[in-house]
Every structure is written in structure tokens, then in C-alpha cells.
Amino acid sequence: MAPGGIINKEEIESRIAYLDHDTGHPATSNAELRGSPFRKAATPSTGNPGKQSTSNMQDLLDCPVCFTIMYPPIFQCPNGHTLCSHCRARVKNSCPICRGELGNIRCLALEKIAESIELPCKYQSMGCCDIFPYYSKPKHEKNCKYRPYNCPYAGAECSVTGDIPLLVKHLRNEHKVDMHDGCTFNHRYVKSDPREIDNATWMLTVFNCFGRQFCLHFETFHLGMSPVYMAFLRFMGTEDEAREFSYSLEVGGNGRKLTWQGVPRSIRDSHQKVRDSQDGLIIQRNLALFFSGGERQELKLKVSGRIWKEQ
Ligand SMILES: [Zn+2]
Ligand SMILES: [Zn+2]
Ligand SMILES: [Zn+2]
Ligand SMILES: [Zn+2]
User: Fold this and answer.
1) How far apart are the CA of 126 and the centre of ligand 4, in A?
2) How far is the CA of 87 from the centre of ligand 1 (A)?
3) 23 CA to middle of ligand 1, Å?
4) Looking at the CA of 161, which ligand is closest?
5) Which homologous superfamily is 3-116 in?
6) Distance 283 CA to ligand 4 centre (A)
7) CA 25 – ligand 3 centroid, Å
8) How far, in Å, is the centroid of ligand 2 from the Cα of 273?
9) Half-sphere exposure of 196 toward its Cβ, with a 13 Å CA cutoff?
10) How far is the CA of 267 from the centre of ligand 4 (A)?
11) I need a surface site. Which of 11, 16, 149, 307 has the fewest CB within 10 A?
12) What ligand is nearest to the CA atom of residue 96?
């Protein structure tokens, strides 16, 4: 399961595919699926008879198929088994609990009851302590500052999400990213055939500084018709935290120099978004080759930089 208790899409899909596959010999995991949250909700509370707690209510609102909270329209089969609209669209009109025909029955009573309750943010386990009325919960969760971050590694599809410590470990262990301590850096980018440009040419280096992590991106792409190199910094944390820092980048050679000063972007902004906004040091390829010296046959760029904290 993904960090933060989020069931990923693959899991949901495989689960539903499994239920669709009616062999007449229900496997144990199928029986377990039929039981858990649904039965928990349907069994009368043993602790406090007469007092329906919010957590019992929350169990009732969990979809028995995907285990996420249901929002209207909530559906039910003729036998009363409830189902979220997302799962209903995928189960081909057959109730995943009783296998009966699903039909088109709304569960208005449950939708109404839901209006009256308040629920904790789904990122509670990641530190969010807020509680919200049922209907405003999704809006908060979309922007909750405790929601997991996407892996900042670009250039390859990576679906890993999590908090910052998890992602730092992930970058080091899975992507073998270079990690450096310190707030100043000197980096060399060398490419033997700089004519060969494709959007996959890029590098990522991570700096540990002020106890936080900064991602230095360096890449090649076409800006309009012109081949360019671009370097920029992303901060592993929220937008607000990112604004507490500044950075500078410097590249040059042959007696010339380009400098850039900017504010690191939060990794909440995708790598692509930062690149498209051109919020970084952009070097035209011709200039880059000039900086590289020699016969302009090889790219040898020295990028130096510094990160500091604004007062
Ligand atoms: Zn569902
Ligand atoms: Zn049913
Ligand atoms: Zn939250
Ligand atoms: Zn990754």
C-alpha cells in the first residue's frame, strides 16, 4: 500500500477484476473482502448501545470495494449493499457483495446522514489534525499541506509518493541520485555529443543544506526552435517554506559569465511546470558551447551555485 494509507489505482483495479471473475469458488481473500468494513458497519456496536459514534458512521460511508469514503451519488443494490459511484461504474451492474443485479438505486438516506457528520482529514496519520464537515473534506484534502509529495525525480515515470524523509531515502536508494552536503556547489556537466538533444537529457543532484533538501535540475530541451540547457532548483517542502530561501547559479567560460538568482520552487510544482515557466538559468546551446571552449565539439559546462536563507 502506498504511504499514507492511499490505495493506488492498480490495487483497486485488480480487486475489482477479481470480483468480476466469478468462478463459483470464492477464494479466501474474496470472503475477507465481503466481510471487513461492510460487516463492521452492519454489526450493531457492542460498546455503547444507542450511541452512534462518528467512527461507526465513517465505517458506513466506506465503500466496501475500494475502502475509500463514498460521496454522492452513493448507490445500493436491491439487497441494500452500498457502493461508491466510482466502483459502480466498474462492476458491470453486478453487486460485488451479493452478485445480484445492481440496477440504478441511489442510497439517499446515507447521503443525507453524511451531511451531518464531521470527519478527520485523510492525511491524519501524516500530521493533519483538522476535522471537516463531510462535504468540504475533499476540497481540503486536495490542498492539505500534509498530503504526500510526488517523487521529484524527472525523466522517468515514477509513481512513488510520500513525505519528504521517505522521498529522500527513495531518491538515494532507488534512483541512485547524487547527494551532497553544503549550501555552495560546483558542478560540471559534460556531454561528448552536444548536437544530440532530446528531452530525456537531464540530471538531478540533491543538496542537504539548512537541514532541508534542494534538487538541482539540469537538462536539455528545445525552447521553441532553439536547443537550450536549463538549470533550476526545487525545494523538497511546501511552497511557503520554499519562499524562505534564495539561490544563485553561475555559468561561464572564455571570460564571459551568466548568472541567475531565483527562489527555489516547491516540488509541489512538477518538474515540467517549472521548466515550462522558464523559472531558472537558461543557456542557449551556442553560448553553452562557447563557454565550453575548445572546438565547440564537446559540452563542458561548469555551473556553480549557492543557496541561502532569507531573513
Ligand atoms: Zn468504491
Ligand atoms: Zn448486493
Ligand atoms: Zn489535512
Ligand atoms: Zn522515484
Assistant:
1) 19
2) 4
3) 22
4) 4
5) Zinc/RING finger domain, C3HC4 (zinc finger) (3.30.40.10)
6) 27
7) 42
8) 45
9) 8
10) 13
11) 11
12) 2
Helices (H), 152-202: 164-173
Contact 213, 242 (CB under 8 A): no
**Which ligand is closest to the CA of 12, given by its number?**
1
Q: Ligand 1 centre from 200 Cα, in Å?
A: 37
In the chain, residues under CATH classification 3.30.40.10 are: 3-116
Q: Which ligand number lies closest to the CA of residue 82?
A: 2
- Ligand number with the minimum distance to the CA of 81: 2
- Residue span(s) of the chain under CATH 2.60.210.10 come to 149-309
Tens-digit pLDDT profile for the chain (311 aa)?
444 444 444 443 433 333 333 333 433 333 333 333 333 333 333 444 444 456 677 788 899 999 988 988 999 999 999 999 999 999 989 999 999 999 899 999 999 988 888 889 999 988 999 999 988 999 999 999 899 999 999 766 788 999 999 999 999 999 999 899 999 999 888 877 767 665 556 788 999 999 999 999 998 888 888 889 999 999 999 999 999 999 999 999 888 899 999 999 999 998 889 999 999 999 998 898 888 886 767 888 899 999 999 97
CA distances from 72 to 94, 142, 168, 196, 275 (A): 19, 18, 38, 52, 38
User: 302 CB contacts (<8 Å, ≥6 apart)?
Assistant: 186, 187, 188, 251, 252, 253, 291
